[in-house]
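Module 6 notes. Inverse folding takes a fixed backbone as the condition and produces residue identities as the prediction. Think of it as a translation problem where the source language is geometry and the target language is the twenty amino acids. Below is one complete input and output pair. Work through it position by position during the lab.
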């Protein structure tokens, strides 16, 4: 009888990314030795470096290159009244449904969207969800009947102090931007800023999500990258359009994303907050998952300052010396989830070329800017010279900071190239016998004190003088 060979399962892009990030030290499941903890992840050595490089690009674009921006870092714990004023205690909720057999709970909008009944189901009321469940005979992922929809508050509740009662209730930040609204007047007074200007922050946020899946796309602990831009009410529409273009340019120019992978989606009237004049999402194409939100741009008006002024009793208005008018500024918000941007970066730059898998990060994002090899690891003179090159590049020189450089002397040089390509290292630097002046013929003399530099993306190699390596790398990375 002829044997049949089972077809090899085709991996989705998400499965490839998850496998690569764990095997190569980008992201680890948190608490894995205890079986893991749902939707929590640790950044490994390479993930940490990539994270900091993304933050550096974001900060350079949004803060350091501008005269009208400052940055703060706010505390995770804030007075509980903050969340009452912001509306999170009463209105920060998702709709939950329960499998009546297994008692597993799910976000109703996710089940509806996955069943292809409609897109963007997050604005549905409990009554509308129940109607859809009945009309479409919607079941749980296990095929069982679902309960009626109930509201589920996403704030993570805790207690601070020696006694756990209502007097010690506190909340982890449901969104990071609230610190900016609370500190706005202090920033205004201490920096002597004039409108318009913005306050930026990269801060932690926590949400008691019902359904967590798709790796790092939806987690209970994450960072938000916020720009809150304060302006005169009559100029708010103009600045809103400005910041929409700015965010598109950030993904194209600063991050290097393809235009085909980024699109805009405007919120429906019943989807956006009641106080918002307009809201748009920047969506990224996550391969099999389709387009998903990575950042929101919101025309918030003066709602946030109005609420905090009312609940705190503190005057948060701005006094315009030119017109002698006092008013609450309007706010244009740009708020992105860092985990989603991190994941989008992996999707954007993942490549396959035959058997070779590699991450084609722009050099400014790559965890390691270059790797240094001795051609043969069993030749002490090559190893010694390669170590000297490695240390030179890592150290500060010519008024510039050193580079993050990898050292690799494992296996043959082909395997080293492959391993560095896989983690996104853009340049591999090899010290060979020509470097020592021990090669054959005239080339040996000509190539003394030079090294071979291989480009990750093209595979091309060129000889570069050791004394010019720092300048060479700086030009390639920061061009």
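Target side of the pair, the amino acids:
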């Amino acid at each position: 009888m002829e044997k049949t060979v089972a077809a090899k399962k085709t991996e989705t892009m998400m499965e490839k990314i998850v496998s690569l990030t764990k095997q190569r030290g980008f992201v680890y499941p948190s608490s894995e030795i205890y079986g893991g903890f749902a939707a929590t992840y640790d950044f490994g050595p390479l993930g940490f470096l990539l994270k900091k490089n993304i933050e550096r690009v974001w900060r350079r674009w949004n803060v350091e290159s501008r005269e009208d921006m400052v940055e703060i870092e706010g505390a995770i714990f804030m007075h509980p009244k903050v969340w009452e004023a912001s509306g999170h205690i009463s209105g920060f909720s998702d709709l939950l449904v329960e499998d009546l057999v297994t008692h597993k709970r799910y976000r109703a909008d996710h089940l509806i969207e996955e069943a292809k009944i409609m897109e963007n189901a997050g604005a549905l009321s409990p009554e509308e969800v129940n109607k859809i469940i009945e009309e479409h005979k919607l079941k749980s992922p296990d095929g069982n009947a679902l309960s009626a929809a109930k509201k589920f508050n996403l704030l993570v509740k805790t207690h601070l102090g020696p006694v756990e009662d209502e007097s010690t209730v506190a909340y982890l930040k449901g969104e990071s931007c609230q610190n900016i609204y609370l500190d706005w007047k202090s920033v205004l007074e201490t920096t002597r800023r004039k409108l318009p200007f913005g306050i930026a922050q990269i801060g932690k946020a926590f949400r008691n999500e019902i359904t967590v899946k798709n790796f790092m796309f939806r987690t209970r602990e994450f960072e938000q990258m916020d720009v809150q831009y304060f302006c005169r009410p009559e100029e708010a529409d103009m600045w809103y359009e400005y910041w929409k273009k700015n965010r598109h340019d950030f993904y194209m120019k600063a991050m290097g994303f393809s235009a085909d992978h980024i699109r805009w989606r405007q919120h429906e009237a019943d989807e956006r907050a009641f106080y918002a004049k307009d809201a748009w999402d920047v969506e990224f194409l996550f391969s099999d998952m389709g387009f998903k939100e990575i950042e929101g741009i919101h025309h918030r008006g003066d709602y946030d300052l109005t609420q905090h002024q009312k609940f705190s009793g503190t005057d948060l208005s701005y006094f315009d010396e030119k017109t002698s008018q006092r008013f609450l500024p309007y706010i244009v918000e740009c708020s992105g989830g860092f985990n989603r941007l991190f994941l989008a970066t992996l999707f954007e730059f993942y490549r396959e070329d035959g058997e070779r898998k590699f991450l084609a990060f722009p050099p400014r994002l790559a965890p390691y800017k270059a790797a240094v090899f001795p051609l043969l690891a069993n030749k002490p003179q090559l190893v010694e010279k390669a170590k000297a090159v490695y240390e030179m590049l890592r150290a500060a020189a010519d008024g510039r900071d050193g580079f993050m450089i990898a050292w690799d002397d494992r296996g043959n040089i082909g395997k080293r190239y492959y391993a560095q390509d896989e983690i996104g290292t853009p340049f591999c630097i090899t010290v060979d016998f020509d470097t020592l002046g021990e090669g054959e013929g005239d080339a040996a003399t000509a190539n003394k004190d030079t090294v071979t530099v291989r480009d990750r993306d093209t595979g091309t190699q060129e000889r570069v003088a050791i004394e010019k390596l720092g300048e060479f790398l700086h030009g390639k990375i920061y061009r």
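Reference fact for the lab report: The domain at 18-85+173-349 is CATH 3.30.930.10 (BirA Bifunctional Protein; domain 2).
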